[in-house]
Amino acid sequence: MTAQEIIDGVRAGTCRHIGRAISLAESGSADGRQVLAALHPATGRALRVGLTGPPGVGKSSLVSALVGLLRAAGQTVAVVSVDPSSPFTRGAVLGDRIRLAEHFVDPGVFIRSMATRGHLGGLSEATADAVLILDSAGFDVILVETVGAGQNEIEIQALTETVVLALMPGSGDSIQAIKAGLMEIPDVIVVNKADRPGADLLRAEIESALTLVPGGPWKPPIVETVAIEGRGTRELWETVTAHRAFLDTDGRLEARRRDGLARQLRQVALDRVARAIEAKVPPEALAQIVERVMAREIDPATAADQLTGPLRRESS
Amino acid sequence: MTAQEIIDGVRAGTCRHIGRAISLAESGSADGRQVLAALHPATGRALRVGLTGPPGVGKSSLVSALVGLLRAAGQTVAVVSVDPSSPFTRGAVLGDRIRLAEHFVDPGVFIRSMATRGHLGGLSEATADAVLILDSAGFDVILVETVGAGQNEIEIQALTETVVLALMPGSGDSIQAIKAGLMEIPDVIVVNKADRPGADLLRAEIESALTLVPGGPWKPPIVETVAIEGRGTRELWETVTAHRAFLDTDGRLEARRRDGLARQLRQVALDRVARAIEAKVPPEALAQIVERVMAREIDPATAADQLTGPLRRESS
Predict the structure, then answer these.
(1) What is the pTM of this model?
(2) What count of CB pairs under 8 Å joins A to B?
């Protein structure tokens, strides 16, 4: 399959070509670069929505319910999962797989899990590339699912225009997410498993945490769902589209995209240089420098200079 | 105060000079570099112990109890805290402050909190420098306290020779720490607040998780403590020293230090280049590149090339 065939296939929305384009982009090859550059002008049409939250709050059930809703309304949906514990990737419990099975065979749904290859860095560029490709392929909605842990949540904000934070009652991780100052990130907050004890308490904690966030014209609404039964998920989607309508006024969407792009580029640039250093310092060179520090011939700061010397001189 | 005065003061173990040396190292100035290089040959004598774990498990009470124990045994202790929520830094509850107050005025105890300046990177180099200075100043024991969150825990392993992971019963974060695969990091595991319900269950979960860790000659012992009452802390310290005795055989200590140093140097090198890029790309240059991507004149990958171009060419 040539790069041009892949480009044409993605433009035609063929799943096989889309999958191939994402793999090619991940490989970082010249063909991959060509495909991305050719597809980029056609982006910017999809509704990009991020879904994040601690493990176990039911993100995959929420995704599944939203996909069902959107398909029923005739919209096409792509799901990009960067949650290694997600059933979209691995570790699915049987119930999840059954619920998702219908979507896996629906041609109006594309599901891609991004492998965590031990390096969050490469992953963030790969995820951005996948979103670019799916956007250019004409999907109406792109859902990006990440597991909640500081860094990921900031990256999802760079890639999507509406971020949904999912929490659940009675979870220490949910309380921790609130305490960790993540309340500045979401545009919509969903309390899933809202039929469990403690939903009111969780809502109160969220509302209290939100009072500490610098107030803007948009105050993140709190939606309660029981995703596994489809309860509240329609309201959740209506809230997401309300946020989009808000962005569509006063040039906010452009500003949001501009800001997201700046974050993304900065992150990608850092990741690339990190990989360049890793490549530049082979294990034996590092071992040699370590020995000199162990022998107290040089101190750690001087050793770090030796590792980064040429790069730093160039940049100063 | 000249660099030489600071160097002499640190060698003499004067707290005022030690504090000054750490600040100077943090500033990254030529004087700071000179101080570090001069002090480095005198390092390697202190027992370096890391203490990590999720927020709220009582790390500061454990540190306080261990400091009391060690002082009673005539040993000098330095505490480096990289936990922004630690009472050693800020946000102390009154009881903590009272418990710690005695240590703050004891000349055989040095307590330093590393500020999180919004960049984990710079922090890891600053922490390594502080440990170097305190080691050269002749403290018998250096305790490095970090809040548990993946990255920090790996860094603490680079800086210390014995890592203690603190958990507590009935905490979702503790369970999460176990699930997150952090069990490969600690040399000793402490179940603090062991008088609370669920201590047996937590121990069982830890033991179960430990069976999944590749077995080596050292199996992390589990110690139960109620640090606030001083219960079990003597046994905890005996377990730490048992681990050190284990390291002292078969060249394990050297191997551990060599491995830690390699991790540390790699991390410091990456952080430095990251800062170089941040410095190299002023906001207006980034904004200009972002505009070109927004206008679809260039794609994100090409934009990232423009940000990192000279650095990458140099390193390839």
Answers:
(1) 0.67
(2) 172
